[in-house]
Automatic annotation (TrEMBL):
Proline dehydrogenase domain boundaries: 125-452
Family classification: Belongs to the proline oxidase family.
Broadest EC class assigned to this enzyme: oxidoreductase
MF terms in GO: FAD binding; proline dehydrogenase activity
Keyword hit for Metal-binding: no
Name of the featured protein: Proline dehydrogenase
Pfam family, one: Pro_dh
C-alpha cells in the first residue's frame, strides 16, 4: 500500500528544496570550475529564473506579507496610523517596551524584515545570511536618532553665532556627541572587510546641528570622534558613507566629507564616500566641482549617488521639476562617471580624476543601465570606474536579486563585470528602530507603483514554488 504524505508536508518539502535548488544554481559558478560552454549553458538556465527565486522561503513569505500591505492603500493607511501611534505611545498597551505581545509581533514581522538585529549577535547572524545569498557586503547604520529640526536650526543660527563659537571650543564632553560616538563605534565593530559604515552627522545632536547649519567647524569633541571612527573603519578594512541631509546643513557636510577624503582617500585607497542627491537641480554642478577638488588635491573621490530622501522638507525651487528630470539627472551623472567623461574631464588634456561610484538605487532601469554601460566599456577596451550597487534590506529585492543573477551569468566571460551588490541594514532595539520602520512604510506609500510590481513578482514566485510542490 503506497504511503500517503500530507499535502502540507509535500508543499513545504518542495518549496524548501525548490528554493535550495535555485540558490545552488545561482551559486554554481562560485563553487565549481567549468568550461566556458558549460558556464554559458548554466548561466542561460539561471537567468531564465525569476530574480526572487534567490530568496529563502521564510524571507519570501515575509516579503509577500509586507508588500501585500504596502501595495494596497486600504491596508497601508491603517498600518501607517498604527505605526505612528507606537512610535510615540501614549499608553502602555502601545509601548513595545512594555507590551510583550506587541513586541513579539513587531519583532517577528516588520522589524526582522527591515532591520538587522537588536544586538551584535543578531546583527552578525543577519550579515552572514545576506553574504551567504551572494551579496558582496552590507552597509550598516545605527538606527537610534537624536531628532533635531535642521531647518529650525538654520533659522536660529544667526542669533547664536557668537554663542556657537564659544561652545564649539568649550564643549569637550557633550552627552549627545558621546552617545553618537559610542553607537557608531559599536556599529563599526560589527562590520567586516569590504563592508560599509554609514554616518549621519546630525545624529550627534544639537551641537553638531548648529555647527553644520552655520557652516562652521565642528566641536572639537565631534572632530575627534570622526577621526576615531575613520581609524576604526580602516582597522576593520571597511569604508564609510557620509549620509546626505537637508540643504540647510549639506554644504557643511560636503566640506567635512571632502576634508576626510583628502586625508584618507589616498595611495589607491577609498575609505570615505560623500552622498549626492540627484533630485536637486544643483547636483550635477556639485559633482563636477568635487571632481575638480579631487583633481587639484590628488585624492580619490568617493561618490554615493542617490535620488534623494528629503523632498518633503526642502524648498521646492531646489528640486527638479519632474521625476523624469531626476531620473535623467541620476542616469546622466552615473553614465558620465562610469565612462569617465564628465564636464571638462575625460579628454586628452584633462584626464578623469580617480573616482569610485556607489549606486544606491531601487530603480531597476538605472541599475541595469549602469551594468550595461560598464560592460560596453569593458568590451571596447576603454577605462571604466569601479561601481557597486546597494538597496535597503527588505526593499527592492527584485533589483538586488536581478543584479546577483547578472553576476552569475557574467562569471567566466572577459567582456563583462559581475555586479557587486550590497544590502543596507539598520540595527538597534525595536524601540530605537520604530522611526526607521515608519519611514520605510511611508516610502512604500510614496512608491506604490514600484511596490505593486514587487508584490506581483513575489506572489508569482510563491505560486511557482507551490506549483513545483504539486508537480
Amino acid at each position: 500500500m503506497p504511503t500517503v504524505r500530507p499535502l502540507g508536508l509535500m508543499m513545504r518539502h518542495h518549496i524548501v528544496y525548490g528554493n535550495l535548488w535555485c540558490r545552488q544554481q545561482a551559486q554554481w559558478p562560485r563553487r565549481y570550475k567549468a568550461t566556458s560552454a558549460t558556464v554559458a549553458s548554466k548561466s542561460s538556465s539561471k537567468s531564465s529564473l525569476p530574480p526572487h527565486c534567490l530568496l529563502p522561503t521564510k524571507m519570501l513569505l515575509r516579503s509577500l506579507l509586507v508588500t501585500t500591505i504596502s501595495s494596497h492603500r486600504w491596508l497601508l493607511t491603517p498600518a501607517l496610523k498604527f505605526l505612528s501611534l507606537i512610535v510615540h505611545p501614549r499608553m502602555s498597551l502601545l509601548d513595545v517596551n512594555k507590551n510583550t505581545i506587541l513586541h513579539r509581533v513587531m519583532k517577528t514581522t516588520f522589524y526582522n524584515h527591515f532591520c538587522a538585529g537588536e544586538n551584535g549577535t543578531e546583527v552578525r547572524a543577519t550579515i552572514g545570511n545576506i553574504k551567504d545569498m551572494g551579496f558582496k557586503g552590507v552597509i550598516l547604520t545605527y538606527a537610534r536618532e537624536v531628532v533635531v529640526d535642521a531647518s529650525k536650526a538654520s533659522t536660529e543660527t544667526a542669533a547664536t553665532d557668537r554663542k556657537l563659537e564659544v561652545s564649539t571650543i568649550g564643549s569637550s564632553n557633550n552627552a549627545d556627541i558621546e552617545a553618537w560616538r559610542q553607537g557608531v563605534l559599536e556599529t563599526a565593530g560589527m562590520v567586516g572587510k569590504g563592508d560599509i559604515l554609514a554616518l549621519k552627522l546630525t545624529g550627534a545632536g544639537e551641537p553638531a546641528m548648529r555647527a553644520l547649519a552655520a557652516n562652521q567647524p565642528l566641536p572639537d569633541q565631534m572632530s575627534a570622534a570622526l577621526q576615531e571612527i575613520c581609524a576604526a573603519a580602516i582597522k576593520r578594512q571597511a569604508r564609510i558613507f557620509i549620509d546626505a541631509e537637508q540643504q540647510s546643513v549639506q554644504p557643511a557636510i560636503d566640506n567635512i566629507a571632502l576634508d576626510l577624503m583628502k586625508q584618507f582617500n589616498v595611495d589607491g585607497k577609498t575609505v570615505v564616500y560623500n552622498t549626492y542627491q540627484a533630485y536637486l537641480k544643483s547636483t550635477p554642478a556639485t559633482v563636477l566641482a568635487h571632481l575638480k577638488v579631487a583633481d587639484d588635491h590628488h585624492f580619490t573621490l568617493g561618490i554615493k549617488l542617490v535620488r534623494g530622501a528629503y523632498i518633503a522638507a526642502e524648498p521646492r525651487d531646489l528640486i527638479n521639476n519632474t521625476k523624469s528630470d531626476t531620473d535623467n539627472s541620476y542616469n546622466s551623472i552615473a553614465e558620465g562617471v562610469i565612462r569617465r567623461r564628465y564636464g571638462e574631464f575625460g579628454h586628452r588634456d584633462k584626464p578623469f580624476p580617480s573616482t569610485e561610484l556607489f549606486l544606491a538605487t531601487h530603480n531597476k532601469e538605472s541599475a541595469l543601465l549602469a551594468s550595461t554601460l560598464i560592460n560596453e566599456q569593458i568590451t571596447m577596451g576603454l577605462p571604466v570606474t569601479q561601481v557597486q550597487y546597494g538597496q535597503l534590506l527588505g526593499m527592492a529585492d527584485g533589483v538586488s536579486c536581478r543584479l546577483l543573477q547578472l553576476g552569475d551569468s557574467d562569471t567566466g566571460t572577459r567582456s563583462s563585470a559581475a555586479p557587486e551588490v550590497f544590502k543596507c541594514l539598520s540595527w538597534g532595539t525595536l524601540g530605537d528602530c520604530l522611526s526607521y520602520l515608519y519611514r520605510r512604510a511611508v516610502e512604500n506609500r510614496d512608491a506604490v507603483g514600484r511596490t505593486k510590481e514587487e508584490y506581483f513578482q513575489l506572489r508569482q514566485e510563491v505560486l511557482r514554488r507551490i506549483k513545483t510542490s504539486l508537480s
